[in-house]
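ok here's the first one, seq then C-alpha cells
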Amino acid sequence: MELKALRSQRKSSFWGQIIPYLPYVMQSGVAVVLLLLFIVFSAWYTSFLKAMPPDLPVQWILLILLGPLTVYSGFRTYIQPADVIFLLPQETKMKEYFSPVYFSGVIYKLLALYFVTLTAWPMVVRSGEAALPLWAMLVILLALKSLSAYGAWQELRITTSRARTGYRLLRWCFILLMLAAWIWQLAWWKSLLFMLLLSVNYILALRFPMKHTVAWENLIASERSGAARALMILGWFVEVPAEGQKVIRRRWLSLAGNRTPWRRSTAYRYLLIKTFVRSELLGIIVRLALLGMLLIYWTGHSWMGIAVYIFFIFITGTQLTALRFVHRDSPAASYYPIMPGIRMKEVLRFISRLLFVLTFILWLPLLFISVAGRGDWLLSSAGLAAGLLLVLILRLAWSKKWSAIENED
C-alpha cells in the first residue's frame, strides 16, 4: 500500500469512530448553547464597538488574541506503535506519508486564526490603529503560522527532551516577538525587515540540535495524546471508550494528594488527585481560568462581566467531568484497594470542591474592579452568589445523571 493512501485510510478509520457520536453531542444541547452564545456575543460586541473606550489597549488585545493561535501547532500523523517495526524499512520514504500531515496541521489552525482576526479587526479599525489593510495582516499571519508549524515539526525530530523544551520556548519567543513587531509597527518595511532577520536566525538555529530522520517515539506519543484529547472532548457529552492520555511530570505538585488519609475508603481519592495533577486536564483548566479572569476583568464593569463569569464556571465544570472516565477501563485501578461504588462519590466530591475554589478565583477580577471603584459591589456580590448557586445546581445534576447511569449498568 502507498504511504499516502495508508495515512488517508487511518484518518478515515479514526473519524469513522468519532462521527457516529456527533448526533448525540448535538442532542445534548450544545448546538443551542453555542447559538445563544453567538447571539449574546454579537449583541455585546456591536454595542462595545459603538462605545469603545478611546484608551483601549488594542495592540495588547490583538497580541493576546492572536499570539497563542499563531504559535500553537500540532499534527495528527495517525502513527501507530507497530509502525516502528513495519514502516521502519521505508523510513527514507516517509516524506510521502508526512506531506499531507504538515499541510493539514497548518491550514485547519489557520482558519481559526483568520476567524479571530476578522472578528477583532473592526475593533482595530475603530481605534485607528489599522496602519495597513487587512490583507497584509492575513499574509503576515500566514507566514508566521507556517514558520511556527515548521519549527514545531523540527522540534518533534529533536533527540533530547531538554532540547525540545528549549526550542519550544525559543519558538514562542520568536513568533510572539515578530507578531508584536508587526502590530506595533511604525514603518511597515522596518517591521518586515526585522521579522525577516529573526526568521532567518530561527531557521538557522533549528539546524544545530541532533535530530532523528523520523522520531517514531515522539510521533507515537503525540498521536496518542491527540486522539485522547479528541475523545476527552466527546466524553463531556457522551460515553466513549477510554484512551490513554499523556502523563506529564509535575514535580512542583508532587505533594498533592499526600495528605489524603491512607484508608481503603479514600484510596480512589488519592488516585484521582494524582491522576489530575499529572494529566493534560490540569493545563487546560489553568489556561481556561487565566483566559476567563482576563475576559472577566475587561467586561466586569457591567452585566456582561457576570455573564462571562457564569459562562466560564460552566465551561470549567464541563471540562472537569472528564475525570469521571479516568481509570474506568484501566488496570491501574486494580492496584489500589478501592471500595465498590465509591468512584462516583469521590469524583463528584473532588470536582465540586475544585469548582468551588475556581469559582472564587474567577471572581477575583470582579472583586478587584469593585475595590478600585470601577464596578458595583452589589453586581459583584450577585455574580459570586450566582456562581456558587450554579456549582450547586451542576453538582445535583451530575449526581442525578451519574446515579441513573450506574443503576442502568
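and now the second one, same deal
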Amino acid sequence: MYKLIRSIFFLFDAEVVHYKAMSLLGITLKIPLAPFIFKKSFIIENPKLEKELFGLTFKNPVGLAAGFDKNATFFNNLFYCGFGFIEIGTLTPVGQPGNNKPRLFRLKKDSAIINRMGFNNDGVEIAVEQLKKRKHKGLIIGGNIGKNKLTPNESAVEDYLKAFNSLFDYVDYFVVNVSSPNTPNLRDLQEKEPLTNLLLKLQERNNSLPIRKPILLKIAPDLSDSQLDDIIDIVAITKIDGVIATNTTIDRSNLITPTEVLEQVGAGGLSGIPLKNRSTEVIRYLSLKSNKAFPIIGVGGIHSEADALEKLEAGADLLQLYTGFIYEGPGLVKRINKAVLSKL
C-alpha cells in the first residue's frame, strides 16, 4: 500500500508534497477509529523495547531525525507512526526563510535525498507554542538547535543559548547542530576550540538550572579520524551526554544518479542509502575508540531492519530515521522494532 502512495507523492515537488502528506495524515487521524487502526498497524508496545538513556525512558529505540518536523507542527500525529522519540528542528532564535527553492531533491535510483534547506524555520517561540499542545506523555521530544544564518560564528554561542533557554521547559533533550552543510561557515564550529567553547557555555547554563537536561552533539559524516578523535576529547571535556552520528554528507561518490543530474541539483547534504556505510563507520569508530564512553544515536541510510541492526551492532544505542521513513513508510518503524525484539 505504501509503495502505491509513495509513487503518487513522488510525482510532485518534494518539499510541497512533504507538507501535503503531513496535512493528509492529520486529516486521516481525525476520522473515527483511525488512531486505533494506526496504533494497531504501526505501534509495538513491549517493555523489552524500552531503553533507559540520559535519564529518560524511550518506549522503543526508533526515532525520527530532525528536519522532518522543523516547527514542531506534526509530532503529535507522527506518534501514530510508531516512533519512540521525535526530534524537532533545527530551530533558530529568529525565524528565517532558508535557502531559495527548489531545495529538496529525490535521487530515486539511489534511494537518497539531497537538501539545502538552510535551517528554514518559524523561530523557536513559534515552536514553543506548538509544543504546549503536546498530547502523548510517553513520547520523548528532542530539540535540535542552531544559529541564524546572519549571525557570525563569533556570536553563535548567544544564538544557541537563546534557543536552549526558550525550549528548555518543553523538550526532553537537546541536540547542538553544527554539522549542517547548508548554512555558510556553520561547519567551522566543529573545530575543537569553538565547539568546546560552545558546549561548555551550554553546559554551564544547563548545570545552573534546578534540573538539567541531556545535551547531545550532531556531527557530520565527513570528519576525518583525527577530527573524530577531537570529538571524543570534546565530549570528555564538556561532559555532554552523547553524540548523534551522522548528519548529511557533501560526498557524491559511488552514486547511480548521472553526473549531469547531480550538477543540475547542485549543492546540499546527501542522505539515504549512500550514507549508510560511512555513518556506520563513524559510529563504530567513536564507540571503539572511546571505549563506549558515551551514548550514540545512529542515523544515516537506515532503510531496512538489517540496516538498523548493523547500526546497533556498530555501537549505536538508539536509531533515527529520515530518508528511510520517506522511502519505506511507517511500516519500517514497526519492522525494525520487531527485529530488535527478535535479537533480545
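notes on #2: The radius of gyration is 19 Å. The domain at 2-343 is CATH 3.20.20.70 (TIM Barrel).
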